[in-house]
Design goal:
alpha/beta
């Protein structure tokens, strides 16, 4: 059973911290010539998929998507705000059966890597300021169902 402490903890890390980090980053970026900058948030495919056993996580990551869109509008045109939504990117749990099963169920047939997520972040850092408020799902097709 999900507790209020569980809910608060995951929202503090995933949503609240994202907001306050972006807020402080924007203040620093406004000191740049033209006030320009790039913010790239980390969401998750949990923002788009319903994982009942992780309701708090899914809600927090959906909040990051909404926050990305709001901040993109609020900080435009000089600062762009985008988000990367990783799919199955295992770390220590790479050999756990549920991780392997989820990865095999994607069209890519494998889990993603940290390097693939970093490449998506770099894409947003190099993109024109005409690219803002977007979410790039780097998920091997997991979101396709």
């Amino acid at each position: 059973m999900l507790t209020e402490a569980d809910w608060d903890s995951i929202h503090d890390v995933n949503l609240k911290a994202t907001f306050f980090c972006a807020q402080q980053a924007a203040l620093l970026m406004r000191r740049n010539p033209g006030g320009a900058g790039r913010i790239v948030n980390m969401s998750s495919m949990g923002a788009f998929l319903a994982w009942p056993e992780h309701a708090h996580y899914c809600a927090s990551k959906a909040g990051v998507v909404a926050l990305t869109r709001v901040l993109a509008k609020a900080l435009a045109p000089a600062i762009t705000v985008n988000s990367v939504a990783p799919g199955v990117i295992p770390f220590d749990e790479v050999n756990e059966p549920h991780i392997q099963a989820m990865a095999r169920s994607t069209p890519a047939g494998r889990p993603g890597t940290g390097e693939e997520i970093a490449a998506a972040v770099l894409f947003f850092l190099a993109a024109s300021n005409f690219v803002t408020g977007q979410v790039l799902q780097v998920d091997g097709g997991l979101g396709l169902g």
